[in-house]
């Protein structure tokens, strides 16, 4: 009997230059996926690509992409098509938050955040879906525990993650008979570049707290994606908090988040 080598699976990871995305890249590479890494920091991704190629002998392509515009996301898809890459996993992970009272936060950066956290997820899911249907592939969307209730002091960010969770669950349902799975990974606060970018240093949410590492969260998220789990919340306390919000009056849930996130003196 002739043995055919297993065809390569290829995964695209957005936001692969740092934090959870970078850590996820290790798991895909360890499983033999070829990788496409996309973010703006090309040098960081090239260093990661070098490490992964050396350690796991997989092919890694780095594409510099700014996903804060629809055109940027469409260009990423066009670049990959031009290279003849067919995806079997799409990881919509790039994203960031902004901390502060809505009256003070900057509108341009909030609009850009909405583009990245929501529009890029929709654009890439839409454009790569034919690939994923053909390969019976997987989508992993990084949402957040922020998705489960409103978030005073991070109002726009929490709303973007509610969008990601809702979109992911609906898409998972539509695709349930196709072999394509969709997983919304919903981490709580996690050590990464996120806190500096969101200027969260002064928030009760993280100040003085020991946060799980990006590696820990990525390992759990990767396994949830492999199982095809629709919604996965790493950490018992995060899970318990998200469940409790379902039975808590909305005003009370919002008040709790306001206290937990408030700026400290
Ligand atoms: N850390 C947390 O506490 C936490 C909790 C829940 C959910 N999350 C979510 O986890 C995901 C990953 O964040 P992280 O915690 O790993 O933070 P991170 O270390 O800051 O990583 C964010 C990634 O997004 C990329 N990115 C930012 N702007 C981009 C743009 N315009 N175009 C393309 N890529 C862009 C960054 O790359 P470049 O800057 O190189 O472009 C980086 O690779 C995000 O969706 C975040 O909302 C984080």
Describe the SSE topology:
Elements: E1 10-14, H1 19-30, E2 34-39, H2 42-56, E3 60-64, H3 70-82, E4 89-92, H4 107-135, E5 138-142, H5 155-174, E6 181-185, H6 194-198, H7 214-227, E7 231-232, H8 236-246, H9 250-261
Parallel strand pairs: 1-2, 1-4, 2-3, 4-5, 5-6, 6-7
Helix pairs in contact: 1-2, 1-7, 3-4, 4-5
Structure in words:
- The protein has helices at 19-30, 42-56, 70-82, 107-135, 155-174, 194-198, 214-227, 236-246, 250-261, and strands at 10-14, 34-39, 60-64, 89-92, 138-142, 181-185, 231-232.
- It has 265 residues and is α/β, with parallel strands linked by helices.
- The protein has a single domain, classed as Rossmann fold, CATH 3.40.50.720.
- Strands 3-2-1-4-5-6-7 form a 7-stranded parallel β-sheet, with helices on both faces.
- Mean pLDDT is 95; it is low at 1-5.
- The structure holds NADP nicotinamide-adenine-dinucleotide phosphate.
- NADP nicotinamide-adenine-dinucleotide phosphate (NAP) is lined by residues 14-21, 39-41, 65-68, 93-97, 116, 142, 144, 187, 189-190, 192-194, 197, 214.
């Amino acid at each position: 009997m002739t043995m055919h080598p297993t065809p390569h699976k290829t995964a695209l990871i957005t936001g692969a230059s740092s934090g959870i995305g970078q850590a996820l890249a290790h798991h895909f590479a360890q499983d033999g996926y070829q990788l496409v890494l996309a973010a703006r920091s090309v040098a960081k991704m090239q260093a990661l690509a070098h490490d992964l190629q050396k350690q796991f002998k997989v092919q890694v392509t780095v594409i510099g992409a700014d996903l804060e515009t629809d055109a940027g996301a469409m260009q990423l898809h066009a670049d990959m098509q031009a290279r003849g890459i067919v995806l079997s996993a799409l990881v919509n992970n790039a994203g960031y938050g902004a901390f502060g009272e809505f009256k003070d936060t900057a509108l341009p950066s909030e609009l850009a955040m909405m583009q990245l956290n929501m529009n890029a997820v929709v654009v890439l899911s839409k454009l790569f879906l034919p690939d994923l249907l053909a390969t019976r592939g997987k989508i992993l969307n990084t949402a957040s525990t922020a998705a489960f209730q409103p978030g005073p002091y991070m109002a726009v960010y929490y709303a973007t993650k509610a969008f990601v969770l809702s979109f992911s669950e609906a898409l998972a349902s539509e695709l349930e008979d196709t072999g394509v799975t969709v997983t919304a990974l919903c981490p709580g606060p996690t050590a990464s570049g996120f806190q500096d970018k969101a200027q969260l240093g002064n928030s009760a949410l993280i100040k003085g707290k020991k946060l799980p590492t990006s590696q820990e969260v990525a390992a759990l998220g990767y396994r949830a994606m492999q199982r095809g789990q629709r919604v996965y919340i790493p950490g018992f306390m995060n899970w318990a908090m998200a469940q409790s919000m379902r039975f808590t009056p909305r005003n009370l849930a919002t008040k709790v988040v306001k206290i937990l996130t408030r700026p400290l003196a």
